[in-house]
Structure formats: C-alpha cells, structure tokens
Amino acid sequence: MPAKTPVSSFNAPSVSPANQAEELRQTIRHHEQQYYVLDSPEITDAEYDVLVRRLQQLETEHPELLTPDSPTQRVGGKPREGVQKLAHSSPMLSLDNALDEGELRAFDARVRELLGGAEFRYVAELKMDGLSLATRYNDGKFTKAITRGDGSIGEDVTENARTIRSVPLKTRGTPETAAVFEIRGEVVMNRLAFERLNSDREEQGLSRFANPRNAAAGSLRLLEPGVTASRRLEYYAYFLLDEAGRPLFDSHWQSLDWMAEHGFKVNPKRRICNNVDEALEFCREWEAEREKLPYEIDGVVIKVDSVPQQVQLGYTAKAPRWAIAFKYAARQVETEITGIVVQVGRTGALTPVAILAPKVVSGVTVSRATLHNEDEIARLGLQIGDTVIVERSGDVIPKVVRVKMQGTYRKPFQMPVECPVCGGRVVREEGEAASRCINMNCPARLKESIRHFASRGVMSIDGLGDALIDQLVDSGLVGGVADLYKLTVEQLVGLERMGMKSATNVIQNIDRSRFMPMPRVISALGIRFVGERTAELLAEHFGTMERLAGATPEELQQAQEVGPKVAESIFAFFHEPQNQQLLDRLKSAGLMFEHLVRRRSGGPLTGLTFVLTGTMPNLTRDEAKFRIEAAGGKVSAAVSRKTSFVVAGEEAGSKLEKARELNVPVIGEPELVAMLPETR
Ligand code: IVH
C-alpha cells in the first residue's frame, strides 16, 4: 500500500497556492479512484474529507485557481466518473413549462382536444425546488436510490439517501399491491436547515450555498453519508411505479394516497381540479402563500389524473403531454438604493446593508439587502442612487444581484473609520474581506455576542430575547456573557415589561444552561470559524477547556478538520487576556469545562443504568440524562433486567409497569437528585 499523503506538506509556505491546489487535486483523484473504482481505499473518509476541504478552502481564497475538472466541482451536471451508475426503469423526464395563464390555458386546450371531449380531471401539486430522486423497494424494504442524472442513467446514492429520515427504510404495512416498486420524488432542504448550514459554513470560513436547491444537491451527492445525515434533507414522494416503470394505479391521486398510507411523505398541499380554472386557482393561492412555506417552491405541477388518459396523450421527445409545470415568476425586483447603513456583528465585523425604496417581492415587502462587505460592493460596482436588481432566495435577507442602471446622482460608499455604534477604531486586516470594530467593549458587539451565546443550539437560554438583551446592556447590568450568571430575579423585575413570572423563568433558564455540554460552551464563546461541528470535534479531541486553551496552533491542527486558519483563530482567542478572564468567570459560574463523554469512570453513578419515564417536577428529560451521564451513569430507553433504576415522574406509563414486572427499583426525582453530585 502506498504511504499516506503527508497532509502537512500542503501547509508549507514555500509551495505556491497553484501548486498546492494541483497537488491536492491529483491526490484527491487518486483516492477517489481507489475508493469508487477499485474499492480499495487507502485513507479514511475523514482524512479524505480533510483533503477536499483544504482544496475548497484554497479555491475559495484563490478563485482564479478553480478549474472545471476540480474534484470540488462535482455538484450538478453529469454523473461522476467512477461512481456507480444505474439505469432508470423508465426515463425520468422533465416537464414543459407554462409561464403565464395563457400558456396554461393553451396546454389545457391541447389536452381537451387530444382526449376528444372525454371527461377528465387534473391533480395539482406544489412543485418543490430540489432535485428528483428515484427510490426502489423490494418486499417493502428500501434497496436503492438513484439520482436523475441525464434522465436515463443516474447515480447510485443509496447510502446517502438512507440517511434521509423521510426515506422509509421499510414501508408502513405490507405493500400488498406490489413486491417491487419504485417511488419518484423530490429531495429538498427546508429554509431553516439551509440557514443553519450556511451560517455554520460561514463560521468555518467556507463559501455559502446560493440556494436550498444547490445545498440539497450538494448534500445528497456528498462523498460521506455521515455528512449528508447532518444536513437534514427531506424527501417528498410524487410518483409510484412498478418494476417496469409503469404507474401502479389507474389514478395518480390514488397513487399519492397509497404512498402516504405506506409511510412516504407526500405533500398534503395537493388538490383534485375539475378544470383548468380550478387548477389556476390553486396556482394563485400558493403563489401568494409561498413565502410562508418552510421550503421553497418554484411553481405548481398539473397532471392529468387518469393513467389510461395519460397513455392516450403520450409524450413529446422530452416531456409528457399530460402534465405541465406552471412556473412562478422569478423573485427579483428592480429598485433604487437610497442609502447604505452599517451593522456591527458579534465579531465586530461591519456589514454594509443597502436601504432600498420598498418593493413587494412575491408577497413580501423588501426594504433592505445585505451587501456583505466592501469587496462585494466593488464587485457589483454599486453606488448609492443606483437602480439595482434585488432577489429573494432561500436567504431571509434579500441580496443585490447586479446594478441595472447607474443613478444620475450617485454617491460612492465609504466604510466608516469609526464604529457607528461606539466610535471605536475600525480596522481592515490584510487578506480579510471584513472591516472590524476593534473595541472589545463595543455595545453592539456585546449585544450580538450575548444573542449568540443565548441562542438555540448554543446555550439555548429561552426568554433572553433582543429586547431584554438591549435593556441588560444599556442599563449596565450585563457587561459580558459571564454577568448573566450573576443576575437575580429582583434585578430583572426592575426592567421594562418584566413580570415576576418571566423574570423567574429567565433566571431559571440561565441557571439550567450551566449543564450544557462542553461543545456548546465552546461554540458559545464565539471564536471565529468555530461553529457547532468544529466545537464538537475540539471537545472530543482535547477533552477539557484547559487543554484546548493551552494548545499550540500545531496541536490544534491535530484535531479533525482544523486547518491553519482555524487553529490560528482559536489560539489567538485563548491568548487574549480579556478572553482568559472571561473563561475564569464562566468556569466559576459552573459551566461545563470538561467533555463528559470522556469521563470513563469514577463518577458516583458509574456502572448504573437509568430509564426515565413521565414528567419530572423540575428536571427536563434532557437535563436528567445529561446529569446522569455526567456522573458516569447510563441512560437507556427500555427497561430490562439490567436496568438499575427507573426514574418515574408524573404520568409514567408502560415503562413503570415493566419495572414492576421485572422488580426494578422505581425512584422519583428527589431520590435521583440525591444521587447526583453537587453541580456548583
Ligand atoms: S412530476 C414526468 N411532480 O420538477 C413528470 N415533479 O421539470 C416529472 N418537481 O424533475 C415530474 N415537485 O424534480 C413532479 N410534485 C411534483 C414535483 C416535481 C417538484 C420537480 C422534479 C422534476 C421537475 C419538473
């Protein structure tokens, strides 16, 4: 076996970026060949991933080095060489489009004519904006997933599709109708998952996905199913075929119902329409509501319901004559830039935001659009007073696509030299796109950092919203996140719109956040480039905050997925005296500075297994589990003879019965708490 690639050689400063990129590409291609064609990998998936990421990073930093044949450019287009290709049972066709009412009526006239006056009905479904995927089932069990590819031959993505929760691995009930069948449907990423993925990527210094469809496609075709799993894709079924690729039922509507009954996700927003007017009404209804959907749609698909009639109508060279896609207009609008304001983020980064003459884009009034940074403004060649094209995509914040027309009176934007919030000095470091306010005590930075600290998925402090954060900072009660742990109910009650009840709640939630596991604490610190995933990997690698804080950049790079840039950022963070103070204070506040999965033994509950059931008076299920595990115990879902204790709260159900049956001791919350070590 050839020696492993010395990964570190790519960091050698003497090698030019172009050579590094080429060397990486060759290495990656070699490993892909080994893995996909020869079935004999020489490196682990994670090591492979590191190589790809490094190349991606290099290409992001030096876009001119990007070549069309780079292994990073595999998303979209033809199936990859070396990947297993599979033929579709029948072609996966696309649809003709109707761009307006007239075109839809023309489609309907043709259908009526070809059916020679026979009665028929349509089925209208939302056209979800993702990528189509065929999944095959044998005796009710999932066997294969194939992408559309060129329509006749697709790519085998079985292992990736397996990670999608809405791809049933086994159908519900016995599929009495067919031993072998095929589903066709759409893989989508919902807006929330898309936003989370993009903000994670930003924190890691990776480029953002342009829209949820690209993100879904990129995620499904990843090389590592484990990563696909973390991307939270969804699969909506819209066709049911037999082994030979023919519809299983005579009515499409019936197929949809059948799939829903057997455990597939079928969009409930569908309707039988008796004529084109009803179909058009469905299109209009959802055009007005589309922004409220959790996923993106780009139109409505209208299909003739009866399969015999579908057969009668037949196909053109590329699309069926019995279906059409009614496409919504692109969500772009032309408007004028009336000004540019600057926002200050948690890292002190100044983000220019365009103020627009308000315009309605697909039902939502748009009056601001992010401009990201100075380079982006330069790239667009944009000045205040220009008329621009603004687009709403999956992002919550609209973006400027291009300048349509220069304004008669235009004014160039200048990044302020002083922070618009605190007046502190603004600095743009070499090689950085962002200008930053360097005042660590800038109230804008402070508020943003508290917002980040308290947010869901970080320390998850419910009730600590924007209005409260503003008051806490403005009143001087909180001068840093560590101060949160000193707050009292009395202090909060003194604030605007704070009753006794909400104050008590917030304090309780702050208290509880002390039990958040160490990866959360790491990501709460807001270190640049350290998102959820990196925090997890760091906690795993270093085990304690002390070890992490004391690591050299070289040691940091030993952790998975940490490159030189991220390592430098972590190192710099922990060597800032102000941050060292913050850590001391968070430690004395009782936050988790140890990665508990690491605690092998020695906790007071080592060797004991608990089963939790019912609602406990104080502890939530997660907290109880967390604290038991923190003390070395295990928590299991089912009661067995090996269970040491069943902890029963209110409305405990069958687990309690099972415990009695097996003679397993049953305790309540007070007894459990008594077994746990003091936490502060
Ligand atoms: S029917 C031959 N139904 O839109 C029929 N397609 O160009 C083809 N899509 O490739 C598909 N939602 O990826 C159908 N409810 C739906 C759909 C849908 C999204 C996508 C699909 C297809 C494209 C049509």
Q: How is this structure best described in words?
A:
The protein has 680 residues and is of the alpha+beta class. The chain has four domains: 2-73 and 330-405, OB fold (Dihydrolipoamide Acetyltransferase, E2P), CATH 2.40.50; 85-327, D-amino Acid Aminotransferase, Chain A, domain 1 (2-Layer Sandwich); 446-588, DNA polymerase, domain 1 (Orthogonal Bundle), CATH 1.10.150; 600-675, Rossmann fold (3-Layer(aba) Sandwich), CATH 3.40.50. Helix content is 35%, strand content 19%. The protein has 24 helices and 22 strands. Strands 12, 13, 14, 15, 16, 17 and 18 form a seven-stranded antiparallel β-sheet that branches. Helix 1 runs antiparallel to helix 2 and helix 12 packs across helix 13. The radius of gyration is 29 Å and the shape is globular. Residues 1-13 and 74-82 have low confidence and may be disordered. The structure holds 2-(butylsulfanyl)adenosine. 2-(butylsulfanyl)adenosine is lined by residues 93-95, 125, 127-128, 132, 186, 238, 301, 320, 323, 325.
Name some characteristics of this structure:
single chain, 680 residues, disordered N terminus, alpha+beta, globular, DNA polymerase, domain 1, binds 2-(butylsulfanyl)adenosine
Overall SS class: alpha+beta
Task: Please provide the count of β strands.
Answer: 22
- Going by CATH, the architecture of the largest domain would be 2-Layer Sandwich
Q: Give average pLDDT, whole number.
A: 86
Assign a percent range to the helix content: 25-40%
Given as residue ranges, the uncertain stretches (5+ residues, pLDDT < 50) are 1-13, 74-82
